[in-house]
Design brief:
The longest helix has 30 residues. A five-stranded antiparallel beta sheet has the order 7-6-5-10-11. Strands 12-13-14-16-15 form a five-stranded mixed β-barrel. By secondary structure, the chain is of the alpha+beta class.
Length: 575
């Protein structure tokens, strides 16, 4: 049984209320989460924390009174603060102000521009509060970003929501979730994701604080609910398992309609590795239709009065009227249209969507629809396409052995090279995709037209046999060595200021040799900011040094992201 989500300000208030001697023990208390016994009730959950001590959370946990401990020190007790610090972050609150959007009136006394009114003093103060905590995270790294630092960030998140900054609050909430996943060694954690979300958080703080750029975009828009989208006739494309850094597992199915528009239907719940393996076979309801995600990826659905979010994520449940129809293969309409779009145009669609805030990116924006012949070399499985001079590298989205991605790709590399396939992948960089699903005429009928590489387990007998298809070396356009800069950005996130050791200069020279002087310059400035330490009149380390490090890190991160995007865009264009 999992803990219910908790509003950010509730957790923050519980940590602030702790005496200093207990605050230093909070991280150790949170680490004991695995030994807690969680019992559900109609009103919430009860957690047996330590002996006879229990903490009761009454849902929704959006006020301090909803979290009660039985110990004598309550509510200023370690048990209550530890439980709240371990619970997921509640991402919405009914009393938070909505972000300024196109449909909101702007007071006449406020000067406006095409990019929206400038940030108010309250908005700038909220952004500064988030920035200061993010700077402390970069100062000390993941190891130093314990429950107290997370509570500080949750307090700042609450303030950002209260003044109408949903984009900032959402990005900072993901940072908290990544930090918790890293400290729990959750399989779904990736340092690159934490790095990206920290960059997004600091970018929004800078845009609001400096008043530059599109202020409406910097504020963001509050997450909208599901709205009617009319009648839809949908055909399943594929299904992939979900495994998040927050400990949730599930599955998402992608579907297309008669206009080749992509829709998604997702379902996730708290679970472990075993649950992730079977999640795609669990039942999902779409109106009166009950079928598994794996079946949905191959079926047809006619939905009356369908509801979906603005990013084309479908609502499921009894409110929708739906009937099941026969599915269609990838070589039939409407799916076949997706493969007729040139690869450079598909890549441009993906890169264009990446400029949007994550909640605003449409479903399937990053899917790649590829036709080609399988090959292999020292990099692993490759796909040679007719309109690309070099091969596309196909990798697994997850290397967790619980999921069959890696095993399936290895089988294809060993026994299906030289064979034509039709593939759905996810763009992942210069001429690189995550392999999600494969269709081929030689696949057994039991797969229903295609193999979902993260769901279906292929066997040697399902494959035709290997042929001579070793890819010659040197076929790819060389890529700039931006990984040298990426490496140091991620090291600062992981370790903090101490990560900026002398090998930074070696990598800066390598970037200069590769004709990347700006990359070398921002890396050297990051090192200088990391080495700069000053004290105030009382001998305390200056907070301004942390802010200077965060700014240098943001500059380097913004350059790295822009340069990597440009290199990726060039790699997918026709030569």
């Amino acid at each position: 049984m999992s803990l219910p989500p908790v509003a950010p300000h509730v957790t923050a208030a519980a940590v602030v209320a702790l005496p200093t001697r207990l605050r230093s023990k909070l991280d150790q208390a949170v680490e004991k989460q695995g030994s807690w016994t969680v019992t559900a009730s109609d009103s919430g959950v009860t957690i047996a924390v330590d002996g006879d001590v229990t903490v009761t959370l009454t849902t929704p946990v959006d006020t301090p009174d909803a979290a009660v401990c039985t110990c004598l020190l309550a509510p200023r007790c370690l048990h209550r603060a530890a439980v709240l610090s371990a619970a997921p972050v509640r991402t919405t609150h009914p009393h938070h102000a909505a972000a300024a959007g196109p449909d909101m009136a702007v007071p006449e006394a406020v000067a406006t521009t095409e990019t929206g009114p400038p940030a108010t003093a309250a908005e700038k103060a909220a952004a500064t509060q988030v920035r200061d905590v993010a700077a402390l995270i970069l100062e000390h790294g993941v190891a130093g970003a314990g429950a107290v630092t997370q509570a500080d960030l949750l307090r700042a998140i609450h303030q950002a929501r209260a003044v109408g900054l949903p984009r900032l609050a959402t990005a900072a909430t993901r940072v908290v979730e990544h930090l918790r996943a890293a400290r729990r060694s959750t399989p779904g954690f990736h340092l690159a994701d934490l790095t990206d979300d920290l960059r997004e958080t600091l970018t929004v703080c800078h845009l609001l604080g400096a008043g530059t750029g599109d202020q409406r975009a910097a504020r963001g828009t509050s997450r909208r609910g599901y709205e009617p989208v009319g009648d839809l006739h949908l055909y399943g494309l594929c299904t992939e398992p979900l495994r998040t850094s927050t400990g949730h597992v599930g599955a998402v199915s992608y579907l297309t309609d008669g206009t080749a528009t992509i829709w998604s239907l997702a379902q996730a719940r708290p679970g472990d590795g075993d649950t992730a393996r079977t999640a795609a076979h669990a039942s999902v309801n779409l109106g009166d239709v009950t079928l598994s995600h794996r079946e949905l990826g191959r079926a047809g659905i006619i939905a009356s009065n369908a509801q979906a979010s603005a990013d084309r994520r479908l609502s499921h449940g009894n409110a929708v009227q739906a009937v099941r129809t026969a599915g269609r293969t990838w070589h039939e309409e409407p799916a076949d249209t997706l493969w007729r779009q040139p690869i450079p145009e598909q890549a441009a669609r993906w890169l264009s969507a990446r400029e949007l805030a994550r909640p605003e990116r449409p479903a399937g924006h990053d899917l790649a629809f590829l036709d080609g012949v399988l090959a292999t070399d020292q990099r692993g499985l490759l796909l040679r396409t007719a309109d690309r001079p070099g091969p596309i590298i196909v990798v697994a989205p997850h290397d967790d052995p619980v999921l069959p991605y890696v095993a399936n790709l290895r089988l294809l590399a060993a026994h299906a090279t030289g064979m034509p396939v039709r593939m759905i992948g996810r763009f992942d960089g210069p001429r690189r995709v995550h392999g999600l699903a494969v269709a081929a005429s030689w696949l057994p009928d039991r797969f229903g037209g295609h193999v979902d590489l993260g769901v279906d387990q292929m066997q040697r007998a399902d494959l035709p046999g290997a042929t001579a298809t070793t890819e010659p070396s040197g076929a790819d356009r060389p890529q700039p060595p931006l990984h040298l800069l990426t490496h140091h950005l991620q090291r600062v996130v992981a370790v903090g200021r101490s990560a900026l050791v002398p090998d930074v200069e070696r990598d800066a020279r390598a970037l200069l040799d590769a004709q990347l002087p700006t990359a070398a310059s921002v890396l050297r400035e990051l090192r200088r900011a990391g080495h700069r330490r000053s004290r105030d009149a009382f001998g305390r380390l200056s907070q301004q040094d942390s802010i200077a490090l965060a700014l240098a890190w943001l500059v380097a991160g913004a350059y790295q992201d822009a340069a990597a995007t440009a290199a990726t865009a060039g790699s997918w264009q026709a030569d």
